[in-house]
Amino acid sequence: MAEERKRRKLIPNRTPIPEQDPKKRGSNFKEVSLGYTTEQALEEAERCIRCAKPQCVKGCPVGVQIGDFIELVQEKNFQGAIDKIKETNILPAVCGRVCPQEDQCEKLCVVGKKFEPVAIGRLERFVADWERDHGQKTKPKVAKSTGKTVAIVGSGPAGVTAASDLAQMGHKVTVFEALHEPGGVLLYGIPEFRLPKSIVAEEIACLTDLGVDIQTNAVVGKLMTVDELMEDFDAVFIGSGAGLPNFMGIDGENLNGVYSANEFLTRTNLMKAYDFPKFDTPIKVGDRVAVVGGGNVAMDSVRTALRLGAEEAIIVYRRSDAELPARAEEVHHAHEEAIRFELLTSPTKVIGEDGWVKAIECVRMELGEPDDSGRRRPVPIKGSEFQIPVNVVVMSIGTGANPLVPQSTKNLDLNKWGYIVADEETGRTSREGVYAGGDIVTGSATVILAMGAGRKAAGDIHRYLMGEPEPEVETAAEVKNQP
Amino acid sequence: MKSDLTKILETKLIREPDVFYFKLDAPAIARKAKPGQFVIIRLNEQGERIPLSLADINPDEGTISLIVMAVGKTTAEFVELKTGDEISDVCGPLGQPTHIEKLGKVIVSGGGFGVAPLFPIARAFKAAGNEVVCVMGARSADLLIYEDEMQTVCDRVLVTTDDGSKGTKGVVTVALEEELKKGDTDLVICVGPAIMMKFVAFTTKNYNVKTMVSLNPIMVDGSGMCGACRVSVGGETKFACTDGPEFDGHQVDWDLLMSRQQMYLSEEKESFEAWKARHAHLLETS
Ligand SMILES: Cc1cc2nc3c(=O)[nH]c(=O)nc-3n(C[C@H](O)[C@H](O)[C@H](O)COP(=O)(O)OP(=O)(O)OC[C@H]3O[C@@H](n4cnc5c(N)ncnc54)[C@H](O)[C@@H]3O)c2cc1C
Ligand SMILES: Cc1cc2nc3c(=O)[nH]c(=O)nc-3n(C[C@H](O)[C@H](O)[C@H](O)COP(=O)(O)OP(=O)(O)OC[C@H]3O[C@@H](n4cnc5c(N)ncnc54)[C@H](O)[C@@H]3O)c2cc1C
Ligand code: SF4
Ligand code: FES
């Protein structure tokens, strides 16, 4: 069949995806992208030429069998397609929406060498949504109880994946989550207009269906330590994320009206401040909001500000358009929504009046020599300082490791930034039986990488619990002790 | 979906009309909590997360106690709760515990609801072998709380009232200064409204006595994730929920704390007024 398809003519452009009108969506929190209809999905799937050696799979951090699932879509076997994806990815409705596909699967797509790559993410989302709307959720098989217990710290993608896999392997799993609802960044960080919370809730419901016990309001490091968990459980997986917000350390940063992106998004998403006073938690938006940063978190913050009623919402980013780390689609959507971009611009101080933000002083930048990350280093242009009048500033310049878990755990090796040292293939830490993965190991990364880490760790935890022989791998401690 | 509700085992009016005592069934928290720590509660699905200090911890009984002063929507809603009612979320223990050691003489000084969290702190300092003196103040005698409880764990309790209706007439710092003049104080711990803590810290500075204050900025998660609780101590930004809530009172930027506490004044008013309006209606029909 592959042969036959290959002869087909390449279709240069991807099937456009229906979206909410940019003018209307700026004032609501409904999902921006509406998803393919069945016809559109079939049309897009036809663009896949079913390469003998699909390159796209290499770009997917968890190795979703992309060619196979798209072929099933071509055959209109949507249930088959979603089952195929779920062999490797338990959160397809999430990943189809938030993966940076242009840097992963779609980047390597062969069609993309000449034309636009196949819209793999959109197809993944289509079949995931199809299953929710039509399908019979295939109940995962749960192995016979092993009598072993595992504690999972954190309910973000890393923790959820590890919990799901381990529960299916027959272990008794308990998840400890600091906040009052599970989901991690999927819940409190990524806004409704990009990832509806009902989807996150369904993924969590799958966990409870598997018999996983989720304990909310449980701050590990405070309510109990990892050492105490090790007394009650046979293994512990730490997936506590990189939730510590960074600030710039400039003057005026503690003025009223200056938020971390975490606070701004948590108030809105988790605490539903957009529906104040029906919900008790307030938020300040004001007419003009500056968001400092250029990643997904910054795009989410600036577009949230717009939806909360800001007349002008502005991105202030120190490098140029080409370096914006956010997903291309988010930047595109932000432009459509008339977000103002002040690129090659960096804040120098926040100016206040009576305790409140009045303006942000910035300096123009130019790109100099490449830095450690390979990107050209932005350098301030002397004398180019100027002010942008704003009422609210959102600092979205990255996050660090929250020290609560690492510092309350004995003999847990950390790297110089405070992240947990864990083996990439197995999630093993310097403590036997203690595993870690996701942002708390890598620093802020992606949903799919966190999921992948949770899955790999679950595999090794299973091996460890069942007393199966060690595969030949270096432990984290060995890696670290190498010269 | 939620199954981990927390039950209220006991309620008590502490001071007319707005200060209440609550004992909660929270064995896991009680097992771990130490004096000086707090919890974050959310009453219901629409609720806000608010921090409340631990006024008592009883690990054997599996309970914690809170003193709540109704100042706005959430606290007013809280004090309406009765024995047997359940709270959606209680998260803790949070923050760093008070550092308890044998020093000699420790003054615990409080105002408003702040006297309540001082109770387990005073008890712990006493148990560690210190002389513990409590200096507490209020506008008038009927506004004082926890005096009797403090008597049970302190060597002496000194009371001040602004109107002189009980104890020394004047503000807390008047009585505090008398005590400091003796020159034998090793540590002052102060919990209360920001303005009171500020003046206590000013007073003790003159006597060069180390002073720990328990800061009460606005919080959301209480676990270091949002930065809402930023305070400035010794010129450095700290997160009160994880680095504190206790800090060296001589280094705190009080104006910043007080300014940040007022960030949502207009929204708080709107929320409280709306609640009162709804509430009045309920009262009428019931
Ligand atoms: C606003 C925003 C937008 C993003 N957009 C994208 C995107 O479009 N695409 C993409 O791929 N990635 C995106 N990311 C990144 C992605 O969400 C993260 O890389 C991913 O969620 C990391 O997963 P995790 O499981 O390691 O941690 P998290 O999702 O951070 O989950 C960690 C969980 O652990 C809990 N926790 C922390 N400490 C404790 C403790 N002491 N005890 C108990 N529980 C604890 C936290 O409350 C949290 O629920 C975005 C991130 C943000 C903030
Ligand atoms: C560490 C800490 C311990 C505390 N312990 C106690 C206690 O034991 N008993 C007690 O009665 N009160 C305590 N408070 C104060 C209590 O949290 C506030 O009174 C409460 O949040 C007010 O909420 P409200 O909706 O009733 O009133 P609002 O009208 O919303 O607020 C009244 C004032 O309370 C403060 N406040 C509002 N929201 C928050 C919030 N989310 N976090 C912190 N402060 C807020 C603001 O300064 C505001 O101006 C403590 C605060 C902190 C930070
Ligand atoms: S999980 Fe992400 S990278 Fe993998 S196929 Fe799906 S969209 Fe592409
Ligand atoms: S309350 Fe969020 S960091 Fe302290």
Detailed description of the structure:
The complex is a heterodimer of chains A (483) and B (286). Chain A has 21 helices and 16 strands. Chain A has helices at residues 2-6, 22-25, 38-45, 56-59, 66-74, 78-86, 92-98, 105-108, 111-114, 120-133, 157-168, 185-188, 197-209, 226-232, 261-270, 296-307, 328-336, 404-408, 439-442, 447-465, 476-481; strands at 149-153, 172-176, 213-215, 235-238, 244-245, 258-260, 288-292, 312-316, 340-342, 345-353, 356-370, 376-380, 386-389, 392-395, 399-400, 434-436. In chain A, the strands form four sheets. Chain A has a five-stranded parallel β-sheet, with helices on both faces. A five-stranded parallel β-sheet of chain A has the order 6-14-7-8-9. In chain A, helix 11 links the parallel strand 1 (149-153) and strand 2 (172-176). Chain A is globular and about 65 Å long. Residues 479-483 of chain A have low confidence and may be disordered. In chain B, helix 3 (115-127) runs parallel beside helix 4 and helix 5 runs parallel beside helix 6 (194-206). The longest helix of chain B is centred in the C-terminal third of the chain and has 21 residues, at 265-285. The structure holds flavin-adenine dinucleotide (2 copies), iron/sulfur cluster (SF4) and FE2/S2 (inorganic) cluster. The site of one flavin-adenine dinucleotide has 28 residues of chain B, from strand 4, strand 6, helix 2, helix 3 and helix 9.
Calculate the mean pLDDT score of chain A and round it.
91
Beta-strand percentage range of chain A: 15-25%
Described by the principal axes of the CA atoms, the overall outline of chain B is globular
Q: What fraction of the residues of chain B are assigned to beta strands by DSSP?
A: 25-35%
Distance between the termini of chain B: 30 Å
Number of helices of chain B: 9
- Give the oligomeric state: heterodimer
- Rg of chain A, rounded, reads 23 Å
Task: Indicate the mean pLDDT of chain B.
Answer: 91
Largest sheet geometry of chain B: 7 strands, mixed
Ions, cofactors and other ligands present here are: flavin-adenine dinucleotide, iron/sulfur cluster, FE2/S2 (inorganic) cluster
Structural classification of chain A: alpha/beta
The geometry of chain A reads as globular
* Separation, N- and C-terminal Cα atoms of chain A: 52 Å
- How many extended strands of chain A? 16
* Biggest chain-to-chain interface with counts: A-B, 42 and 44 residues
Give the uncertain stretches of chain A in residue-range form. Answer: 479-483
Give the topology string of chain B: H per helix, E per strand: EEHEEEEHEEEHEHEEHEHEEEHEHH
- Give the low-confidence spans of chain B: none
Number of DSSP helical runs of chain A: 21
